[in-house]
Specification:
Strand order of the largest sheet: 1-2-5-4-3
Largest sheet: 5 strands, antiparallel
Order of helices and strands: HHEEEEE
Structural class: alpha+beta
Strand content: 15-25%
Number of domains: 1
Distance between the termini: 20 Å
Number of strands: 5
Helix content: 10-25%
Mean pLDDT: 87
Shape: globular
Length: 106
């Protein structure tokens, strides 16, 4: 599904979106409820090796971050906007293959 123009993160990466929401809920973080509706703006293109997935236009992130852990190890970092109310980008740290949705096709 799309919001009219953009694919949602949950459609491009359903397992990742579910995991992020689950980990946020485990921490009691209200951002968990927003994950299902996050737009997907594509992979970050700041460098050839950047592994971030954008859920807001480039440059939207502030300096705040939420670190999500599994078994005591950081697995996902969420960049937040300056108000700390919107997830702007996602960095997956555990080396999983995100498939072709994580690459630009055009």
């Amino acid at each position: 599904m799309t919001d009219g123009l953009r694919t949602r993160l949950a459609d491009a990466f359903p397992a990742l979106a579910d995991e992020i929401a689950h980990l946020l809920r485990a921490e009691g973080d209200p951002l968990a409820e927003a994950v299902a509706d996050l737009p997907y703006h594509g992979p970050c293109t700041c460098t050839a090796t950047c592994t971030n997935l954008l859920t807001a236009p480039p440059g939207s992130s502030g300096s705040s971050m939420v670190q999500l852990e599994r078994d005591g190890t950081d697995v996902i970092w969420l960049g937040l906007d300056p108000s700390r109310t919107t997830i702007t980008d996602i960095e997956v740290l555990d080396g999983r293959d995100l498939g072709p949705s994580a690459e630009w096709s055009g």
